[in-house]
Amino acid sequence: MSPTIPYEYKYLRAKKRFPHVWCPGCGIGIVMGSIIRAVDAMGWDKDDIVMVSGIGCTSRMPVYVDFNTLHTTHGRGLAFGTGVKMANPELNVMAVMGDGDSLAIGGNHIIHAARRNIDITAIIVNNNNYGMTGGQFSPTTPPGAKTSTTPYGMIEPGFDVCKLMDGAGASFVARGTVYHVTELDNMILKAFRKKGFSVVEALAPCPTNFGRANRLGGPVEMMQLLKDNTINLSQLKALKSDQTEGKIVRGIFVDRDSISYGDRYAALCEKARKAAEAKK
Amino acid sequence: MIVPWGETRLVQGNEAVALGAVAAGIGFFAGYPITPSTEIAELLAQYMPLLDKKWIQMEDEIASVSALIGGRLAGSKSMTATSGPGFSLMQEGLGYACMTEVPIVVVNVMRGGPSTGLPTQAAQGDVMQARWGTHGDHPVIALAPCNVKECFELTIRAFNLSEIFRTPVILLPDEIIGHMRERVLFPLEEDVDIVPMPVPDVPVEWYEHYHESTSNVSPMASFGSGYRYHVTGLTHDVHGFPTRKENEVIAKMDRLKHKITRRLDELEDVQMHDVEESSVVIFAYGSVYRSALAAQAILKKKRKTVGIFRPVTLWPFPDRTVKEMLDSKDVVLVPELNQGQMIHEVERMTRDSVRVVPLHRIDGYEITPEEIVDAVMEVI
Fold first, then answer.
1. Closest Cα in chain B, distance from residue A83 (Å)
2. Residue A2 falls within a domain, yes or no?
3. Domains in chain A: how many in total?
4. B1 shares contact with chain A (CB less than 8 Å)
5. What is the pLDDT of residues A180-226, one digit of tens each?
6. pLDDT at A1 exceeding the cut of 70
7. Residue B82 pairs with which residues in a beta bridge?
8. Cβ–Cβ of A272/B50 closer than 8 Å?
9. Which domains are assigned to chain B?
10. How far is CA B125 from CA A116, B131, B286, in A?
11. With an 8 Å Cβ cutoff, are A109 and B59 in contact?
12. Domain residues for A173?
């Protein structure tokens, strides 16, 4: 009996580009799986998908998927993606980024992409540190945590990605984890369906760097932490405050209908042309 | 009709750049306001929606140049306009466009620097930044117009060259050229050559994003056209995937270099006046070339003959022609609106027996014909 090849393979550059660069126990591959399942559910043609990224571990993802793929400079994935989407609005554009890439060096771009409400889905794999360069602190490193550049503990407060994106104007904002995979699949699918700027933050372990520096155990223990330290938004009301203290909330925080940048730009062109014709 | 084909108009240099971009078929503009280039963005914000073309003001210059590259990859001819400080921010994207061989046009209307410098005044202080601003070995094409008509023509040429060579092209008007107004007789539309975006015709499975053709330039497929490929700023193989294999790395770097150095004839663009018969030659570009022409006329009345050598294409530098024409001269005067940048290139291409004399002006004003006349009289 020949083994069944999972349908996910049809979206991978399976023969050419593997093995991948990610460490054992890394969460990024799980997010890639969720993205592929959501793409399949959308029924998109591979020719019509553009995956952009910046620099970092997560940003290596475009190499492995068989879409139009654009691995850019550090933090600029969304800026490149904005150009792609403007030039050809028919393309389905997603940006995959790490926490450092999207929120530190790319912080300016992500808040403006959200403000403009450009029709792109941003998927942020948050593993609380810069993995590619060996585990330095990022804008989401928790207070007190040790990294190679916070040997005495992190003193800066971190960003709450979802609150930031809500405030900046994104149409859809959700947080999941790589432990809760079906939930994450569903969040990414909903984000793809959303017209306008949609953001999914996926919490993920980095056992090699962040985990080791903070003695959090191996891949299994770090997965357990994602299970134990998070609660779903729907559970929040039912639980007492001592049960929810210190927990990270998963769920869909924003899901609103607002006109995307592309639609507003198309309306502007129409208006400008009519005004010019009226002048004649 | 945005471009006044076949008509005579009084237009500003920056306006002529905007009109040239429309004539060349610009599909996407992304920019950030900065003096003295802003008119280009403002005028295109007016024109482009009327033509159903895409225009966006980004959050900074890094985002602008990044968006341009995305725009061109998705199939639109793309341009931005900036000035010194913004041009510095764009170096990251320029390097990426060189490495990934994406054609874009970047206009840098040069103002006084360094840093914020003299925002409203002229300089030619960015000619070396245009050449070496981004890190690593890389090819560069840069053009410097000297009048408003050339702002129109060279913008079109910048688009054409970027498509032919699959590389970013930099247009370098100085502030004087960008802000001056002149009467321009626009050509007839049918008299202007516009290079369309080349598209591959090979079957999808044969497509190599960086195909090794004899010219080192192969047609670039656009996202969404059915040719799926990978783009990365990492050193890559012919398919665009990252590589560290010695032979592939060398092949990539050679390709970037040779696509320019093997086709210098198509890029070289110089103007010479009385160079052969003169022992003294003025080497000038941009607005300074105009003063050199006026100085030459004044000197003629004094019965002094001087030659003028003007590079229109600044990069690649016209090495061979400079060597042929200037190596036997007694004196080459190099007036520049900086403390001496292109003069080093002239020195590089001439023998020690040639006196290469600088003339600088760095207070934001033009080099006058009289200043050039005085300098010539001193050395003659």
1. 4
2. no
3. 1
4. no
5. 999 999 999 999 999 999 999 999 999 999 999 999 999 999 999 99
6. no
7. B108
8. yes
9. 8-191 (3.40.50.970), 269-379 (3.40.50.920)
10. 35, 12, 12
11. yes
12. 7-279
User: In chain A, which residues have their Cβ closer than 8 Å to the Cβ of B97?
Assistant: none
Residue pair A118/A168 in contact by the 8 Å Cβ criterion: no
User: Can you say whether the dihedral through the CA atoms of A59, A63, A67, A70 is positive or negative?
Assistant: positive
Q: How far apart are the CA of A49 and the nearest CA of chain B, in angstroms?
A: 8
Question: Which residue on chain A is closest to B69 by alpha carbon?
Answer: A80
Cβ contact (<8 Å) for B230 and A109? no
Handedness of CA B134, A77, A51, B58 (dihedral sign): negative
Phi, psi of B255, rounded to the nearest 5 degrees? -60, -45
Other Cβ atoms less than 10 A from the Cβ of A151: the count is 8
Placement of tokens 């042309």 in the chain: A273
User: What is the percent of chain B where pLDDT is above 90?
Assistant: 98
Question: Can you give the CATH number for the domain in which A77 is found?
Answer: 3.40.50.970
Q: What percent of chain A has pLDDT over 70?
A: 99
Select from B58, B73, B232 the Cβ nearest to the Cβ of A84. Answer: B73
**Best residue of A39, A64, A84, A265 to probe chain B, by most B CBs closer than 10 Å:** A84
Q: CB-CB: which of B52, B59, B70 is closest to A84?
A: B70
Please check whether residue B50 touches A, CB under 8 A: yes
Residue A1 in any domain: the answer is no
Are B65 and B100 in contact by the 8 Å Cβ rule? The answer is no
* A68 touches B at CB < 8 Å: yes
Query: Nearest-CA distance from A108 to chain B in Å?
Result: 7
B235-244 long-range contacts (CB < 8 A, ≥24 apart) are B235/B99, B236/B210, B237/B210, B238/B208, B238/B209, B238/B210, B238/B211, B238/B212, B239/B208, B239/B209, B239/B210, B240/B100, B240/B209, B240/B210, B241/A16, B241/A17, B241/A63, B242/A63
Query: B314-338: per-residue pLDDT in tens?
Result: 999 999 999 999 999 999 999 999 9
Task: Note the pLDDT of residue B212.
Answer: 82
B54·A63 Cβ contact <8 A? no
